[in-house]
Design goal:
GMP Synthetase, Chain A, domain 3; 28% helix; alpha/beta; 15 helices; binds adenosine-5'-diphosphate; Luciferase, domain 3; six-stranded mixed β-sheet; 24% strand; 23 strands; Rossmann fold
């Protein structure tokens, strides 16, 4: 027997219909890199998204087609999120900080048909165009020099249409994560998973957003579905303030002027903000909530924000989780805790909202679930309606009945359900919210004629959370200095990937199967200090 309620598919386009109808006049402010600003509102975003839907249909783009963006934060980008899904397509937000070979791979793998981009990425587009095999149409957001410009493109339409309808299980968005070894992997979100996730994000114990909220997402729109803010913001009709540049002075001025109540960004954003505030004496009296995640929030950052009267919402998440997994929300006895205890609690990764389940299993025996005793650490797994089942284009038959997703993080779970990350099994280093592949660093290093073996590990850094160091063994009778090795690497990897230090050792620890034991190496270097 089925229940007797209406058939109603959960579709993200309906979020915008709702925002325009219920909160149509609520502003969306955009500040562009050249200092210019635009103001529109949720009704305007819907009008433009409908026009974009028509413009896409004119190009023959429709159901299931991938529409990519390569852009920073602004309202035209927001229009494109809803325009792409509005035509029944799949929005693919590309991270412009990826390397050329990754950019080549993901746009071709995604089979993007249209790419909308910021003029500042024109050099990247010129480089990549000959390598991208599926993109038929390029649209530039803020210039008409090399491609049709966005405003003219959608300006030719009247907006007199409706968003596409369909199943709530249809895909709506594709995000690639490079936080894995090998090629980046695509995560294909559904309308249903996205709507449920956005609803969860709004809760008082999560982002605590409502119509009076003024939100400044410093998290880029290409990073992990922008933490759902373009969707959840519409759900409550929050005012959104976007900045195309992520500089502390610009963000600070916007936050003051627009009376921003909710800020969202990785820890490095807030650390840069503090520096600016210290240098100028600027204050943020309206800021009530800071949402931070992507890497562990440093204690000093949490403490400072709390002393400013800000509620810190420290999130652990992953692109594979839409991205919210857990959040350090206040427990029932919060008011009885000392300030120090409160800061400590906010530094942990927190508890799951309804919709996410977590468990830790034995690192060597995944069949064995570990107790939630606050001491036993193991491989962290998760499941729920907005957690990935398989990567885009991965073999559907390879997915078993067991839906638990392996996060690649190592953690303990406390008896009250609080998650505490302790390590990582995936071989990547996260610096300032962006991934560095340790494997690629190591491969580059062993290319040096004097290096026998090399291992890269992440070391705690006060500003970037983690920075790589390279541990290397020299070949017998051969010589190379740390500086020489760094100079050698500088020709092979991006500058920000270069290890902060190179340490030579006589031996690197190995596992029983002969692989480098990162666990033992990290243990060996656990007291290693980087300054900066
Ligand atoms: P995002 O950067 O949005 O979190 P990614 O998929 O790029 O998404 O990265 C996910 C990984 O980042 C996690 O598996 C974990 O290793 C790390 N991470 C995310 N949030 C935190 C956090 N609050 N504390 C520690 N590590 C985190």
């Amino acid at each position: 027997m089925l229940g007797a309620m209406q058939d109603h598919e959960l579709r993200v386009s309906a979020l915008l219909d709702h925002a325009a109808l219920q909160h149509g006049g609520r502003e969306i402010v955009s500040r562009y890199a050249d200092g210019s600003e635009t103001r529109t509102d949720w009704a305007g975003i819907r009008r433009d998204a409908l026009k974009m839907t028509q413009a896409l249909r004119r190009l023959g783009v429709g159901t299931g087609d991938r529409i990519a963006t390569l852009a920073m934060n602004h309202s035209r980008h927001l229009v494109s999120w809803y325009g792409a899904v509005g035509v029944g397509g799949v929005l693919h937000t590309i991270n412009p900080r990826l390397f050329d070979d990754q950019l080549e791979y993901i746009a071709n793998h995604a089979e993007d048909r249209v790419l909308l981009y910021d003029a500042q990425f024109q050099p990247l587009i010129d480089r990549m165009k000959p390598l991208w095999t599926t993109i038929e149409q390029y649209i530039c957001y803020d210039s008409d020099e090399n491609a049709p410009d966005f405003e003219t493109w959608i300006g030719a339409e009247d907006g007199n249409t409706e968003f596409a309808t369909g199943s709530e299980r249809d895909p709506c968005m594709l995000c690639y994560t490079s936080g894995t070894t090998g090629n980046p992997k695509g995560v294909l979100y559904e309308h249903r998973s996205t709507v449920l996730h956005a609803m969860a994000a709004l809760q008082p114990s999560m982002f605590n957003m409502d119509t009076r909220g003024v939100l400044l997402p410093a998290v880029p729109m290409y990073h992990a579905a922008s933490w759902s803010l373009p969707w959840s913001g519409a759900m409550v009709g929050a005012k959104i303030v976007y900045s195309q540049v992520n500089d502390a002075p610009v963000l600070c001025e916007l936050m003051q002027r627009e009376k921003v109540t909710h800020g969202a960004g990785v820890p490095t954003v807030w650390l840069a903000m503090f520096q600016h505030m210290d240098a100028t004496g600027a204050a943020l009296p309206d800021l009530k909530t800071v949402i931070t995640g992507g890497s562990a929030a440093p204690r000093s950052m949490i403490e400072r924000l709390m002393r400013m009267g800000v509620r810190v919402m420290h999130v652990w998440g992953m692109t594979e989780m839409s991205p919210i997994g857990t959040i350090a929300c206040e427990p029932d006895n919060w008011d009885e805790l000392s300030f120090d205890e409160q800061v400590t609690l906010k530094g942990l990764q927190g508890r799951t909202p309804y919709g996410v389940e977590i468990r830790c299993v034995d690192l060597d025996d995944p069949g064995k679930e570990l107790p939630r005793d606050g001491v036993t650490s193991g491989a962290l797994q998760t499941r729920g309606p907005w957690v990935i089942k398989r990567y885009f284009k991965a073999d559907a038959d390879a997915v078993g009945d067991d839906q638990w997703f392996d996060t690649g993080d190592v953690a303990v779970i406390h008896p009250d359900g609080t998650l505490q990350l302790t390590d990582r099994t995936k071989d990547v280093i996260k610096s300032g919210g962006e991934w560095i592949s340790s494997v690629e660093l190591e491969n580059a290093a062993v290319g040096h004629p004097a290096v026998a073996e090399a291992a890269a590990i992440g070391i705690y850094h006060p500003k970037w959370d983690e920075r790589p160091i390279l541990v290397a063994v020299k070949k017998p009778g051969m010589e190379v200095s740390a500086e020489e090795l760094k100079a050698f690497l500088a020709e092979k990897v991006a500058k920000w990937w270069l290890p902060d230090a190179v340490e030579f050792v006589t031996e690197i620890p190995h596992t029983g199967t002969g692989k480098i034991s990162k666990k033992d190496l990290r243990e060996q270097f656990k007291d290693y200090k980087l300054v900066g």
